[in-house]
Amino acid sequence: MTRPADGHTAAGAGAGVLAVLLASVLWGTTGTAATLAPQVGPLAIGAAAMGAGGLLQALLAGRRIVRDRAALAARWRTVLLGGAGVALYPLAFYTSMRLAGVAVGTVVSIGSAPLASALLERVADRRSLSRRWTAGAALGLTGTVLLCAAEAAGAGAGSGTGSAGRTVVGVALGLVAGATYAVYAWAAHRLIARGITSRAAMGAVFGLGGLTLVPVLLVTGAPLLASWTNAGVGLYMALVPMFTGYVLFGFGLARIPVSTATTLSLLEPAVAAVLAVLVVGEHLPALGWAGIVLVIACLGVLTTPSRPLRRPRAGRRTGPLPPEPAPVPVPSPGRGRRAPRGRS
Hints:
The protein has helices spanning 10-27, 30-35, 42-60, 62-67, 69-74, 76-100, 102-111, 113-124, 131-153, 155-159, 164-193, 198-220, 228-253, 258-264, 267-280, 286-303. By secondary structure, it is mainly α. 72% of the residues lie in helices and 0% in strands. Mean pLDDT is 78; it is low at 1-7, 156-161 and 328-344.
């Protein structure tokens, strides 16, 4: 039996929006953190971050997973699809950043996710998209394109993409990352909408993805143990952006649609670009800052509460009055039975 989502209330939707925005800020730090351990390959970084973070989510949600095990087993295809998305996303995402640069990889990966989410919701859930979402997505995607163009133009100076071929492959992997991000977000939201608690749904999906990433970590993760800095980066990625970020994201998915959540996550590339300038030392031209402004405008469009419809004032006629209901016949005391006498 499907339980109503908390997003059906304005307060629940507001809390969901705030949770996704906070998660996006945490995710925006991953690219900069990865640059602090250049000896660690992107597959190892991705497997450590999403693998360890996913297993930790599953561990802490163990009781709720056991309690909802029948519902999860009945929807095993959705769980399997979400787990596959979780496993593929970090491998594509971090490799994209390594090949195309931090800002470009993040922009393409996250910027393509709203369109993929909208397509999934349209096809699988037959969900119509509002004009507000369309306007917000247009602003956000335009901003991400400007960011991508700005970073690509300055790649030779600071981001170290190396060649046009590497950049093209990095952008292609970013599109794969965006699609897999939309897939596991949709799967988790689908489970939550079917009555499974947020913690159980996220724990099951991310736990399965984490288990899938364990062999990748065992094969590629030796550099993580080569120094305290590398180990610290891996630990930070697993605990802060991946574990804490996705707990917040799951909280938000229980309250707002997937298309809205993935569009709000467009804040991540803006945060990543700012940190790349302030911490890594990359140069962001004026075109890139214009893209950040558009991303912020997108968030403003999506997070500004709608104005409630005004009720017409009493005594002021705004249209034809509805017909008055027919009077209900009430038996009078003088007809039929006598009215009971009051006690003196």
